[in-house]
Amino acid sequence: MIPPAFPSHLIQEAKAEFDHKKAAGLEGEQLVYEQIKDAELPGFAIYSQKLSRHTSKVTGEADFVIFTEAGVFIVEVKAGKNLELRHDGWYDGNKLQKETPWKQAEDNCFTVLEEAKNRYPASQNLLFGWGIALPNVAFKDEHPTVVSRKCIIDQYEIHDTSDAKNPMELFLGQLAAHHRERLKVQGESIARGKRPLTKKDFEHLQNIFARELDLKPSIGSVSKQREGKLIQLTPKQYAVAYAMSEDRVRAMVEGGAGTGKTLVAVEVLKTRAEKGEKCA
Question: 3-class SS at 107?
Fold first, then answer.
């Protein structure tokens, strides 16, 4: 990527991590790393981004957060050679995974989006999306646990050198197109409102995320986060609030007591007020 895909002070840490995973037979992340690094795209990327303010966990981690002109994309890499998608879920060998790669990528995306909006409000005008890389797994069919096959790059596509562009570069373009279409379902004006990233955006976002790679939450912050768990939006609630705050449409949200209707409404009002809109 242009400028260098990974901030220089992070490269050595990534190499050490790859050596550790290679010893465990998980070389797939390094392959994805090399392809991102060689992609001829303006922007930058961060490997192994720590998420100390995760939307659904005390802490989390995103394998790759990639900042391109088209948008910001979270890519989760599942490099295990025994990973398999069966009718009832994702398995590593014979062990059913509690969290699907798709759900993990989606949750991490909303965590990154929320942090970006809190620290750099202009982020709400940028496209955010997620995808999965499977360097050692062939994936052909649609499945209930996967929203779209377009958000997956498997072993055949990652190792395909028949095209002039590198596979991850093609995949990022595919992700951008898919997530724009996803937003169109929520409202045509939402997708139209997402602009390309500028040099200023890159600078602000790199300052926010690249410097926090090693950020660990303190005991006090973890305690506060747990105390606030009950009043924190879930990814689905956040997605609804995000859509409603981006488009001037009338909407009716139904749900029983305690399902978060008021929290969604407050988030919508907060976001619109930050944009300078009059909220009554």
Answer: helix
Tokens of 143: 């499945």
How many Å apart are CA 180 and CA 43, to the nearest integer?
19
- Lateral strand order in the sheet of 89-92: 83-86, 89-92, 95-96
The strand pairing partners of 44, in sequence order, are 67
Residues 169, 41: Cα–Cα separation, whole Å: 8
User: Cα(35)–Cα(55) distance, rounded to whole angstroms?
Assistant: 29
Q: Is the pTM of this model over 0.85?
A: no
Maximum pairwise Cα distance, the chain = 58
Q: Using one digit for the tens of pLDDT, what is the confidence trace for 47-100? A: 877 775 544 544 578 889 999 999 999 999 988 777 777 777 778 888 888 888
Give the separation between CA 23 and CA 37, rounded to whole angstroms. 22
- Give the separation between CA 192 and CA 176, rounded to whole angstroms: 13
Query: What is each CA distance from 221 to 53, 217, 227, 231, in whole angstroms?
Result: 9, 6, 10, 16
Tell me the CB-side half-sphere exposure of residue 146, using CA atoms within 13 A: 20
Joined together, the tokens standing for residue 220 give 């006090």
Which residues have a Cβ under 8 Å from the Cβ of 110 and sit 6 or more positions away?
55, 235, 238, 239
pLDDT digits (tens, 9 = 90+) for 168-195: 999 999 999 999 998 888 777 777 889 9
| Closest among 100, 83, 94 to 137, alpha carbons compared | 83
